[in-house]
Amino acid sequence: MQTWNFKLLMRVANLILTYNDPEQTERMIKNMVHEDFDFYIHVDKKSDIEPFLFIEALPNVYFIKNRVKVTWAGFSTVKAIFSSIKELVGSGVKYDFINLMSGQDYPIKPAALIAEVLRQNIGKELIHLEDIRNEWQEGLIRMENYFLADYTFKGRYTIEKVINFIMPKRKLPHNLHPYGRSMFWMLSPEAAMFVVKRVEKDRKLQKFFSLCWGTDEFVFHTILMDSPFKERIINNNYRYIDWSRGGAHPKILDENDFAPIKQSEALFIRKVKAPQSSRLMNLIDHKLLI
Asked: How confident is the model at residue 9 (pLDDT cuts 50, 70, 90)?
């Protein structure tokens, strides 16, 4: 008796936010080349795009045209993500997932395995989140206080202190409950566009999020947990990130982290940066991506 093995068709848009080290971005993409994957690169508008353009020679690589000038921890990061989502959705290609990445991510599983994990999760939303009020209270400060993260004028921090001394604590509009954590996720275009449309059409939300710190770490989480997509969420973004040193930045991973990375069920690591992470990336290339 003849049996048939049908492979479920899938397409993934890997959305990469970057601003420096085009060679590392190229290296990451080369290790992820797969028939199901496209790559969209958003180069920070502050950066010269010319050094990155050689990457377009790789299969299925496209550059986001409507670039945004990004300020670290500012709402401008969210604007860059929103702009990129709208552009890739507007391409007309039907994607099952948008995989949000940075130029300092790196795959730790072969592209075929990454594709298979995503294929098994079609119809789900993969995002790491915590209840900010009860699990990640550090995140609450980022929302309750006023921050001028998108501004770089002299005296900015003094003005922030004065504003926060005078003004009461801020509250999310519409009685939304805050959720957040890692900014990196793998969402369906429908879920991603739901967030884009809801925020862009709501001036109260825009105003609130524009005065937060690190909005990218809670805007998608909060909106999706108050949406029809809530029931589709899997609380896992398949990232290995080391926050053990505290602070606003994760540890830059090196060869000493290879052993726990090897044991991880994650698909990607961050943060990697040459030259500190070069030996680690070599180990991954020769031992994990074969």
From this structure: confident
Stated as kind and residue range, the H or E segment containing 16 is: strand 12-18
CB 92: neighbour CB atoms within 10 A? 6
Distance CA(234)–CA(221), nearest Å, equals 12
Looking up tokens 């290879």 gives 258
Q: What does DSSP say about strands 268-270 and 239-240: parallel, antiparallel, or unpaired?
A: parallel
Nearest to 146 by CA among 132, 130, 158: 158
Element (H, E) at 42: strand 37-43
For residue range 59-109, list pLDDT tens digits in order. Answer: 999 999 999 999 999 999 999 999 999 999 999 999 999 999 999 999 999
Query: Which amino acid is present at 13?
Result: A
Per-residue tokens: 252:
């830059």
Structure tokens of 244?
A: 């053990």
Using CA atoms, how far apart are residues 113 and 264, in angstroms rounded to an integer? Answer: 14
Contact at 8 Å (CB) between 218 and 178? yes
Q: Count of CB atoms within 10 A of residue 39's CB?
A: 24
| Cα gap 195→89, rounded to integer Å | 13
Token digits of residue 287: 């031992």
Q: What is the largest CA-CA distance in the chain?
A: 78
- The token pair at 22 is 């085009």
Is residue 276 within 8 A of residue 24, CB to CB? The reply is: no
Q: Is the pTM of this model over 0.90?
A: yes
H helices of the chain, where?
22-30, 75-89, 111-120, 138-144, 156-166, 189-200, 203-210, 219-224, 258-263, 278-287
